[in-house]
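Incident log entry.

Two folding requests arrived from the same account within the same minute. Monitoring flagged them as a possible duplicate submission, but the sequences differ. Recording both here for audit purposes.

Request one:
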Amino acid sequence: MTRSAFLLPIAVIAAPVAAQPAADQLRAASAAQQLFDRDWVLSNWALKFFDRNRDQRLDAAEAATAAAEFRNIADTDSDGRISPYEYRAAREFILARY
C-alpha cells in the first residue's frame, strides 16, 4: 500500500511533463501552417515540394517539414533566427528559382 502511495504523485507530476513536447510540436506545426497561409510564394513552394498526399493542403507534418527547409534556406547567418532581411531574401530566392 505504501509503495503505490509513493508512485501516484510521481505519475501525476510526470503526466504534464510528458504532454509538454506534444504541445510544443502542436504550436510549432500551427506556426508553420500560419507561415504558409500568410505568404502565397511560400505556400505555392511548399505545396509543390512538400504536399506528399497531393490534396492541395499542408497538414501539420508537411508544414513542419516545409518550414524546416525554409529555415535552412533563410537563416544565412546560422543564428537560429530569421531576420526580416533574411525572410525577404529567401522569399525572393524561392520566387526566382521555383
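Request two (distinct sequence, not a duplicate):
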Amino acid sequence: MAPDPVSFTVASFNLHSGIDGWGRPFDTVAALGDLDADVIAVQEDWIPDDGPGLAATAGAALGYAVFEHPLAHGRVAGPHPRADHRWMRPLDWRGSSHAIYLDDHRPLSSRTKQSTRFAAARPGRWGIAVLSRLPVTGNRVIELDPLPRDRSGRGAVVVDVTVDGRPAVMVGTHMSHLTYGSPRHYRALGQQLGEAIGGAPAVLAGDMNLWGPPVGMLFGDWRRVVKGPTWPAWRPHSQVDHILVRGPVRVLDGEVRPMAGSDHRPIRARLALPGD
C-alpha cells in the first residue's frame, strides 16, 4: 500500500520593510508568527546596517531557518511627524513624505537627498528571504539581470527541503513592475527554475507585481493556488501576491489573510505531496 500524502503550509508576505507608509513600525515577528506556515516567502525584508534583518529576527524568535538575499541598498525613515490614522498619505510622491528610499540602482533626486527626512533615515539593505521550519538540504540564489528603470536588483531564493522525508523545492521572489520590463525576468526565471528543479515538487511564492492571469501565462507550467485581492491591504482590489506550484503537488486550500501591518495582505496555502 502506498504511503498517505503529507501536507505542509506555505505563506508569502511583503513586509514593506516593517513600517507603514508614514514610517511607523509594526510587529513583524507577530505578523509572521500568525501565519503559522512551514515555509514563508518574505519580500521587502529590511536588514539595517547596524543589526539583524526583519526575517532573521523573526526566524530566531519563531524557530525558522532563514535565507536572506539583499536586492538593493537604501534607507528607512522613522515615523512622519504629521502621521494620521491612514496607512499613508495618498498619492503623495514627494521625497519629504517617503518612508523607504532605494538609492543604489537609480539615483534619487538632489531635492530628496537633501531633505531632512532622508538624512535622518536609517541605512540598510532591502531584499527577499525564505524562512523554513522544514528540514533544509540546500539553498542557492538565482540572480536576474538588472532592468534599467528598476530601483532594485531582482532574483529568487531557492531552498531545498524535505517534507516527512520527501524532497521539495521552495522558491521566494519579488518581481519587478510590468512597466519596467518584468516579462523579461519572468521568462529568465521560469527557464532557470525549470532547469534547476526538473520534475521535483516545487512551490514559487512572492510579490509578483502583476495580476494572476498574466502571471499564469508567463509562468506557463506553474499553477496558481490562491486567488483573491491582496493590495492595497486596507481596501484590496488587485491580487499581486501569489503562490504557485509545479509538479506533483496537490492543493488542499488557499486563502488571503487579513491586513497585518503592510500595504500587502499575506497569503497562505495548504499543500500536499504524493505518498509515493
